[in-house]
Amino acid sequence: MASAEDLMDIYKEAYVKDPIVLQAKANRNTALAAVDEATAALLPQIDVVGSLSANHTSIMPGTNERADARTASAGINLSQALWRHASWASRTIAQKTAAQQDLVYNDALQNLIMRTATAYFNILSARDNLTFAKAYQEALRLQLNEATRRFQVGLIAETDQLQAQADYDLSSAQVIAAENQLINSYEELRKLIGRTTSDLAELDAKRFSPMPVQRSRQNILQTAEENNLALQAAIIGRDIAKDNITLAQTGHEPTLDLVGSLSTSYSDYSTEVPNAQEDGNTHEGTIGITLNLPVFHGGAVTAQVKQAEEQYVVASENLENTHRTVVADVNNGYNNVSAAISSVRAYEQLVKSAESSLRSVKAGYEVGTRTMSDVLDATQSFYSAQESLSAARYNYIISRLSLLYTQGTLTVADIEAVNRGLID
């Protein structure tokens, strides 16, 4: 019998199959190639050229006088930018864009950990909910049978039997909803790995023990401001926008290029006219400097500068928004972890209390001091408490990982630690 797939099995497969990560990787590689392209504009440009031509000319129509010529030529053209501020600015922008895309790619990797863990534990949560829903349904079925038997012999009123029937019917609808939720949860996981799965390792509830955050809120916020990948990418985005202003302003600046060429040609003349050109080789070499000074281009450069300045405002506001989001996420994440720990402890106690209460109510019902409605309410409370405890455990795990992600420090080691808390 094959063992159940665990969180690490799913993550390793998602790492090589997830479209979002693969897209981010391709974007990073594209940006790196753009750096080489921008650098090329600063390096010598060398072209080898050649031509072969034949020419036939009739000197005098109606006579045999003609001039034929065949010419072959080859040469090398060279150009080297001496001063092109735009090319240097473009290279700087390309380098920063590559650095930004590298951050985006690494953020996608951390986000993959979050999406994998979230999808995985959503399945476990939905599976638990279905288990509890079926157990609740079975408990209500037994109580319905008991209520029907008692009603038939006149021990309880018809209203008690009808209440038991209504609660059982409701539980059947809840089972259907839980089954549908589980199916949908599996679909979310399929989006990551491109296939369906059914047998997943479950959380070892007996060994599960939530740990409080060891660092202060302010310390975590400082780490996030220094390492959050989305924030770092936004900082570079603002810098790129500023460099784009410089690039646009270069449209007013002169350019200076070194140009040179070296060529040789051979001509073969075949003619029947006097004083025709002689066959021979021709060699030619040139070198010079080309200066281009923009004077007026219809206001295009001014418009480009204005656009770049407005884009800088956009990038600056995006940075501010990203920073505020990070601060909010840190505070929310810190609160969520603390609340999740308290919730787990509270629900653990609630499950114990609800179980004791259910036993007590059932005993009271047997001796006639409690009604069927009391039993149904106690049963519902017991299974609801179990469902809430299960959800609180998963919520703690996701909240803890999310806080690490907000700090920009989430690694594979973190989900390996979570994975050690799973059992087949």
From TrEMBL:
Keyword tRNA-binding among UniProt keywords: no
Lineage: superkingdom: Bacteria
GO molecular function term, any single one: efflux transmembrane transporter activity
Keyword Metal-binding: no
Keywords: Cell outer membrane, Membrane, Transmembrane, Transmembrane beta strand, Transport
Gene Ontology CC, one term: cell outer membrane
Pfam families: OEP
Compartments it resides in: Cell outer membrane
Chief place where the protein resides: membrane
Entry's family note: Belongs to the outer membrane factor (OMF) (TC 1.B.17) family.
Entry protein name: TolC family outer membrane protein
Organism: Candidatus Anaerobiospirillum merdipullorum
Source organism phylogeny: Bacteria, Pseudomonadati, Pseudomonadota, Gammaproteobacteria, Aeromonadales
